[in-house]
Amino acid sequence: MDVVGYADPYFIAKIDDRITFTSSILSNTATPTWDDEKWIVRNIPLNAKLTVKIYDKDDEKILDDYIGGFEVLNLINYHRPPKGHEIIGLLKNHSGYFHLSIHSMKSSEETKHLPPYTFDGPCRYSRHDSFAIGRLTMLNADCVYSTWKIHIRRISAFLKPHERQHWNTKYKAAQTIFGHYPSSVASLTTIKLAHKALYGQTLKHHENGQLTNADDLWKLVFSDRTTQRIKPCIYTYVIDDNTWRFSETDVQLFADLASKHALLANGSEYVRYAGEFHPRPKYGWDRCDDEWELVFDNGSGTYAPNP
């Protein structure tokens, strides 16, 4: 991509407002190149539209500066413009060119049964470290509180698109967030701001990568960076349409607040699944150097399953 002037750019791509991809942030460049940013989506309709918007990241601002965007109206029979797609800014000004590569193929016998707009990889992860929350929670010696987001392939093959869990209307804490109370708007706004602070991409204290197998998950996500050993702890999590978000929880006040399900879900009224999980040695705690497994429940108060 060629932009006018130096920036810390990233882009957000959407197909028909049904599925979204957010790139990594590139620092201080006028010619950003996202070589490793692949996005595989299955069973896209013939008339699908791709919208791409490019932003300039600024950690000091609540909202990032909008550079510009463009649309692609014929994804299936895509032809790349010789100069790339012109990036048009808010004032219809020219803001550069975006060079895009799209490869279309017919659905196979394996994939044609998947729902439209099914995300199929790669499985990317991001970790955001908060030192301010880390000093409040004191869950580790480094005083760092980490939140995780992992993109999961083919969620709809296991959790059907129409099977979403609504917030628990009988749960008093959820009522104060999603109910029709004077304080609900303030509560929901606070939750969304906290989510952005804990899960939003930043130039600093943020890590991105890809998970190609189960070993990557254990090494890159669940292993302690200092000891290289898996830490036994409890995480709260939510699964939405394409992502699995989680963070460590504890009875300590600030750790409990930072790991609330409504915060993980960015104040959404629906999730696919929510609860807690923990890693444990598969063959017993006396064999911690052997294989580990993850144990999940769906014990969320905010998004409690229907009886």
Description:
The chain is of the alpha+beta class and 307 residues long. It contains six helices and 18 strands. The protein folds into two domains: 97 residues, C2 domain (Immunoglobulin-like), CATH 2.60.40; 176 residues, no CATH class. A hairpin with a 3-residue loop joins strand 14 and strand 15. The termini are far apart. The model has no long low-confidence stretch (mean pLDDT 91).
In short:
The chain is 16% helix and 30% strand. The chain has 6 helices and 18 strands.
Q: Which band does the percent of strand residues land in?
A: 25-35%
Total count of domains: 2
Q: Structural class of the secondary structure composition?
A: alpha+beta
| Helical percentage | 10-25%
Which descriptors would you attach to this protein?
single chain; 307 residues; alpha+beta; Immunoglobulin-like; 2 domains; seven-stranded antiparallel β-sheet; four-stranded antiparallel β-sheet
What secondary-structure arrangement, pairings included, does this model have?
Blueprint: E1 2-3, E2 9-15, E3 19-22, E4 41-42, E5 50-56, E6 65-72, E7 85-88, E8 94-98, E9 118-119, E10 123-130, H1 131-137, E11 145-151, E12 165-166, H2 172-178, H3 184-199, E13 206-211, H4 214-222, E14 234-239, E15 243-249, H5 253-258, H6 261-264, E16 270-271, E17 273-281, E18 292-296
Helix pairs in contact: 2-3
